Amino acid sequence: MQPPTTPVTTTPVLIVGGGPVGLTLSILLSAQGVDHLLVEARTDTSPHPKARGISARSMEIFRRCGLEAAIRELALPASQVSFYRGRNLVDPDFVRTGVAADRSGADPVDGPEHTPSPGLVCSQDLLEPLLLRRARELSADRIRLGVRLLSFEQAADQGAGPGVRAVLRDRDGGEPYPVTADWLIGCDGAASTVRTGAGLAMAGPTDLRHFLSIRFDAPLGAVVADRASTSYFLTPPGLGGFLAIDNDRRWIYQYPFDPGRPGPHEDLTDHRRLADLVRSMAGLPELDVTIRSTMTWRMDAQLATAYRRGRVLLAGDAAHVTPPTGGHGMNTGIGDADNLAWKLAAVTAGRGTPALLDSFQAERRPLARQVIELSSENAQARAGGYRMDDELLLTAVYRSGAVIAEEGFEDRGQQTQGAAARPPLEPTGYRPSGAPGHRLPHARLGGPAGVGSTLDLVGPGFVLLTARDDPAWRQQADAAAAGGHPVTVHALDGGPLREAVPGTVGELCDLPAAGAVLVRPDGHIGWRAARPSRPGELLDVLRRILGS
Asked: Are residues 467 and 542 located together in one domain of the fold?
């Protein structure tokens, strides 16, 4: 139910789109203390489990939002995160591969510990209501479902003052009404109204494949008890597969079709025919099937030519459409929200200049391009298969004006020379590093309740992690705060915080005893220093990062 609302005529940030990306952005903006308005044309969350794989990096973001435990309660057990191949669901000669099968059912946290928050499988129809509830808890009257963006225009002067005048209308009737915003963020999907209105184009192939997605209920829990998996791919290739929502009664069947040929995709209201298709592909002619919903979709691989035009920015599928083979589409969008939220907070508060928002495209667009390429290669290799690679998204390295490059800093195993030419992702695996642009490495900590990892120290502002409690670094932080840029200092030398294994952070970040790393609110390292050098150095670094 939509909570009571009051008229909104102006807002610093207007978010269009209330899917996982828009709702995550709303939650993160609220954590940063940024007033905003989110509008979504739908009157409720998505009933269809579109995306399911949530990567470790996304789970780290949700951990910071206080949502990790609730999401894990809704997820499939880690022992079921594997992949089935067979002629049908009852094939005695099936093959089961993937995380659970290869690791004897072990939870991913038992492997090399690069994260406190392993990835999981939780369908979008379960995730979205959780995100909506949290967004409303933090900013109840600023989350408006059933509200459509009709049009918008940007002010000719993109300097100070509101930059966008949008026209909205409630779906239940009423006259259109204007809302002015400093910034408009399009999180409204592949057919983005915001992207079109801003005159931004998409480039890349479309119509790679077409699928009919059938959401249905059927008592399959006992059938798959000895082969429970995340995804059930049917052989020979071309028959599609089943996607588990709960590995009991709730399922999706993905049927690949040729739009130029007749088939069950032609009449989505013919539930009897669709149920017969499910029974046939499952290999269970007497299966009790109830069709809940259907949708058709096409596989595209497209990237927006730009993520920003003036006061308008794009995130999620509005900026990049990724083949689902890899499970990276929603996760890339969640990463967009995390990258963008703190930058919007800095700009709207006057701590950063609008130039800071240029780093959003510089950091996220190259990553999306590589994710699209990897997912497209995966689609060709696996003939429509599905794979979620948690480690891949942990390797993202940012290079932009919001990262201070190093000169002459020794970094074991991570050469910085020629870094600009390297792609942001390293598909061969994650390697921890304290170099600027890298995600802060995870290390186990002891201390206050709720702080079990270095990643729990991230945000909502900048954080300075020091190897020891050095008065010189405290003085640097005091000078930064006096200059309008507060920084929280955490020393890891056995004070209130302590490392589970002493020296871990220093080793992972390659820090000498007098060193420090400056961590941005999104968990990426903005600067690293071997020692404090001159008065006001930290303040100068923050000003450079923020473009001020």
From this structure: yes
Residue 30 three-state SS: helix
Residue 495, token pair as written in the block: 């004070």
Containing 165, the helix (H) or strand (E) segment is strand 164-170
Alpha helices in 283-393 (DSSP H): 329-348, 358-382, 390-393
CA separation for the pair 172, 256 (Å, rounded): 36
Beta-strand pair 487-491/320-321:
unpaired
Check residue 79 and report its DSSP letter. G
503 and 526 housed in the same domain: yes
Do residues 128 and 89 both lie within one domain?
Answer: no
DSSP designation for 410? -
CA 524 to chain centre: 15
pTM of the model: 0.92
What is the extent of the structural domain holding 511?
395-546
Residues 338 and 415 in one domain: no
Same domain, residue pair 248 and 182: no
| Domains contained in the chain, number | 3
**Amino acid (1-letter code) at residue 309:** R
Residue 298: what residue type? R
Helix axes 124-139, 20-31, angle to 10 degrees: 30
**CA 191/CA 111 separation, integer angstroms:** 40
What CATH number corresponds to the domain at position 454? 3.40.30.120
Both 181 and 321 in a single domain? yes
Are 229 and 308 part of one and the same domain?
no
Neighbours of 246 (CB within 10 A): 14
Please write the tens of the pLDDT for every residue from 14-33.
999 999 999 999 999 999 99
Per-residue pLDDT tens for 317-358? Answer: 999 998 887 678 899 999 999 999 999 999 999 999 999 999
CA torsion 131-133-139-140 (nearest 10°) is 140
For the chain, residues with pLDDT lower than 70 are 1-6, 99-112, 156-162, 326, 379-393, 407-421, 494
Other residues' Cβ atoms within 10 Å of the Cβ of residue 471? 8
